[in-house]
Amino acid sequence: MNIFILNTVNSGLDTIDLIRKELNISGIIGLSYRIEDDTISDYVYQKEYCSNNNINFIEVSNYELSNNNDKKKLLELDIDVLIISGWQRLIPKWLIDHCSICAIGSHGSPLGITKGRGRSPQNWALLLGLESFYISIFKVDVGIDSGHVIETRMFSYSPLDNIKTSYYKICLLTSEMIIKALKNPEFSKQSFKEQEHKQAEYFPQRTPNDGYIDWSRSNQEIINFVRALTHPYPGARSNIEGNSLCIWSVIPMDINLSFKHKVGTIVKIFNKGDILIKTSQSYMLIDNYSLLSKKFQLKEGMRFDSYSYDKQMKRIIERHKEKYPQLPISSVIIKQLYK
């Protein structure tokens, strides 16, 4: 069986590491080299990885796989199974049809694959403070996460989980399911569960501009927002006097102080650089952050801008409805506007 993997992100390499311990990989298909400003979040150029592990690396120049030279190159490969490890784009029909057995993708959400199709489901799960996640592997078709389901597994989120640990959990479970499926000698003859397409709902896409903190929300909601957007994502953000701060982690500081400050004010900058912020409930410690401008200096008494979470949600929903009017938004997203 000739197995190829389509991947272009660092987190996908962890899945590949696990799969190739049990299955022979014929090649990895990935994006050609590009500078940081001209790529996607967590992009990795896989040539060195493939060279170090004696794996054939097939470079493509276009993320949408629409380049004619890329198409010609891929159609020359003898692909039985194509595993989609880290490629957040729809796979073109010609490539799906070229696989003699099938293409296998993975997707999930806190509501399962059918009611959580679409973009950024892990980010949404953590941001909304949800406690479990269902991840599925499925036979890829031309739709959005709509193929027949091969297997589904569930895992729980702890209060300490963030988007990085979520990816690790999915990496471990996804690789186990793929290995189990492809080690089955009857795999190519099996039929799998069709989804109930009439029940489908979709999570809307998030962008870096949707990552600004509303400091008037509860401490737990701020924590959820930050942990959902930390590495390898661009980070939660907050502007202060025209300068932007990327916030990677926060710690609640539930203490009674006599200070009288408005929400978002820098109450204290500790000697190690940690920042104490006034929130609507009490205080929050920003213990890992980066300033986009190295010349700007934070000072006590400065106040961070606060962005309305409700307005952000409305903008995200409106953007989705304008771009994909035929794809109903997940009910858990809609409930955020009416809670």
Describe the structure.
By secondary structure, this protein is of the alpha/beta class. It has two domains: 3-203, Formyl transferase, N-terminal domain (Rossmann fold, 3-Layer(aba) Sandwich), CATH 3.40.50; 213-306, Roll (Methionyl-tRNA Fmet Formyltransferase, Chain A, domain 2), CATH 3.10.25. Helices cover 27% and strands 24% of the residues. The protein contains nine helices and 14 strands. It has helices spanning 10-20, 47-52, 68-75, 93-98, 121-127, 163-183, 219-229, 309-323, 331-335, and strands spanning 3-7, 27-31, 57-60, 81-86, 102-109, 117-118, 132-139, 149-156, 202-203, 236-240, 243-253, 266-269, 275-278, 283-291. The strands form three sheets. It has a seven-stranded mixed sheet with strand order 3-2-1-4-5-7-8, sandwiched between helices. The protein has a five-stranded antiparallel sheet with strand order 10-11-14-13-12. Strand 13 and strand 14 form a beta hairpin. Helix 1 packs parallel to helix 6 (163-183) and helix 5 (121-127) runs antiparallel to helix 7 (219-229). The longest helix has 21 residues, at 163-183. It is globular, with a radius of gyration of 22 Å. It starts with a strand and ends with a helix. The mean pLDDT is 94.
